[in-house]
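Renewal narrative, Specific Aim 1. Our central claim is that a sequence can be written position by position from structural information alone. The example that follows is taken directly from our test logs and has not been curated for this report. It begins with the structure tokens describing the chain, in the order in which they were read.
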């Protein structure tokens, strides 16, 4: 009997809570705001909501610096409000996935305060402390993903602590049994409250070389262009073989509860992403597949990527696809408005669980943030390299009104100048909008076993277009996508059945129009 769990059949929608809906008028999204939008999400046709961190945090990295794994930051609400979000979501048939941040805590977490208090602290080894190098400098050449050394000297105790991100995000020591157990208990805390799973932040980073050896130089590094961390290869700080033990242990915790999911954030090559399914599939249920985020946007590249990914999956491993998230430029900015529709059709018709990023359903684009308004520490530390993440984190637009229906106050990031045309209210009233396309695709996928769980096979590819089929039993769907801005002949004979959906409002047979995606029922 094939597994029919919700996280295979369903579609995940990522909410960046600061930017989704602000109920209290402080300009920052909150849990009451999200709660009010749950009916919207149910109607849109998604199945699960992944909420970026809402835990107590000094917000140095906007919540990815957690100071209490078992609470809610007052900016967002409180634990009762979180319970209410979970209960309302469940009543609407939606699942809730929390972000779990195991690699590092905030430096304001009581564990770290205690750890840095003295070398003899019982919590000292919950973090990674090392003596200075003989010259007094950092213990090795490891660099922070946000620029600069990954080591910060602590005057009080005369040692350096490791942080692969900000100095306000000290790395936790996953070799320490008590730390592991405390983190697992934090997961259970939420699982008992009914959350349906976790997206695990930088899962590939949790283990570091036990001997703290230097990383090798990266010969491909481009000075002034690449992020500073890329000066070295992450040989001793990422994707260590011991990481799989941690993943399997997290999975065992999640599996103590029925019907939950473990998703891993993994920026790794294809062969390594699929390793995180684990031996006998005892690793992550869904190791995030970010291949579409980095890929050149053309039919042959995407076609071969689908084939390579499908071929690399372990037997029984369930695929997944992602177009964007809060760390990457938005899809509509990467490929343009017309191709963003093709991308929507691709994402929602491939085999595997899709994850949508909030606002992509209205075709939101990156919003340019003037230097004086920059909030992202990555941009502040490494300016003008195009690495900053504020542009893709701007508030959701619900209406054309001032504040975009997001807030009655001043939004924490500017809204952008195309709110009047790109917002839910306006687009929901327009059957030819990208929002209407997303909704049709989501409900079509939900109604179709071929689309939600069927097999996939590439049928044809040309320089312009890609065609594939999805099949379950006697249900067969053919998808044809034109990746160019000129008309394209179909890369296959026209399917025998009828065309049922186009990225254009109206449906035609024959050659594809510029940037047209079309679905046939055959
Ligand atoms: C990955 C998260 O997605 C990103 O937003 C964050 O800054 C880093 N991990 C550090 O937690």
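The sequence written for that structure reads:
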């Amino acid at each position: 009997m094939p597994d029919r769990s919700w996280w295979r059949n369903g579609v995940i929608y990522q909410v960046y809570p600061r930017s989704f809906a602000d109920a209290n008028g402080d300009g920052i999204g909150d849990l009451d705001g999200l709660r009010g939008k749950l009916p919207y999400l149910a109607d849109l046709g998604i199945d699960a909501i992944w909420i970026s961190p809402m835990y107590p945090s000094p917000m140095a990295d906007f919540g990815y610096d957690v100071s209490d794994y078992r609470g809610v930051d007052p900016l967002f609400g409180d634990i009762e409000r979180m319970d209410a979000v979970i209960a309302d979501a469940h009543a609407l048939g939606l699942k809730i996935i929390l972000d779990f941040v195991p690699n590092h805590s905030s430096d304001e977490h009581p564990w770290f305060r205690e750890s840095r208090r003295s070398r003899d602290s019982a919590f000292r080894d919950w973090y990674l402390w090392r003596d200075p190098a003989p010259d007094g400098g950092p213990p090795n050449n490891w660099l922070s993903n946000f620029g600069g050394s990954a080591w910060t000297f602590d005057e009080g105790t005369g040692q350096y602590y490791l942080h692969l991100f900000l100095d306000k995000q000290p790395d936790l020591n996953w070799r320490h049994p008590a730390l592991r157990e405390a983190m697992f208990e934090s997961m259970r805390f939420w699982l008992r409250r009914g959350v349906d799973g976790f997206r695990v932040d930088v899962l590939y980073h949790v283990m570091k070389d036990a001997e703290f050896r230097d990383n090798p130089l990266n010969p491909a590094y481009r000075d002034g262009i690449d992020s500073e961390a890329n000066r070295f290869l992450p040989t001793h700080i990422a994707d260590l073989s011991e990481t799989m033990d941690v993943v399997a242990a997290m999975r065992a915790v999640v599996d103590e509860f029925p019907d939950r999911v473990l998703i891993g954030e993994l920026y790794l090559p294809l062969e390594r992403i699929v390793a995180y399914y684990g031996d006998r599939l005892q690793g992550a249920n869904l190791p995030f597949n970010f291949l579409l985020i980095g890929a050149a946007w053309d039919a042959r590249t995407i076609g071969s990527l689908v084939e390579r990914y499908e071929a690399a999956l372990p037997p029984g491993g369930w695929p997944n696809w992602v177009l964007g998230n809060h760390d990457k430029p938005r899809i509509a900015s990467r490929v343009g408005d017309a191709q963003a529709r093709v991308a929507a059709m691709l994402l929602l018709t491939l085999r595997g669980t899709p994850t949508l990023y909030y606002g992509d359903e209205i075709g939101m684009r990156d919003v340019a943030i003037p230097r004086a308004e920059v909030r992202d520490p990555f941009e502040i530390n490494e300016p003008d390299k195009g690495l900053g993440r504020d542009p893709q984190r701007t508030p959701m637009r619900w209406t054309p009104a001032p504040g975009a229906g997001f807030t009655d106050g001043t939004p924490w990031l500017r809204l952008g100048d195309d709110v009047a045309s790109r917002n839910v209210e306006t687009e929901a009233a327009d059957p030819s909008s990208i929002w209407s396309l997303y909704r049709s695709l989501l409900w079509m996928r939900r109604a179709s076993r071929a689309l939600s769980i069927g097999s996939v096979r590439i049928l044809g590819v040309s320089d312009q277009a890609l065609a594939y089929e999805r099949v379950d039993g006697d249900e067969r769907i053919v998808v044809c996508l034109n990746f160019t801005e000129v008309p394209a002949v179909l890369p296959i004979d026209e399917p025998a059945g009828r065309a049922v959906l186009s990225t254009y409002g109206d449906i035609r047979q024959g050659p594809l129009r510029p940037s047209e995606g079309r679905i046939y029922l055959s």
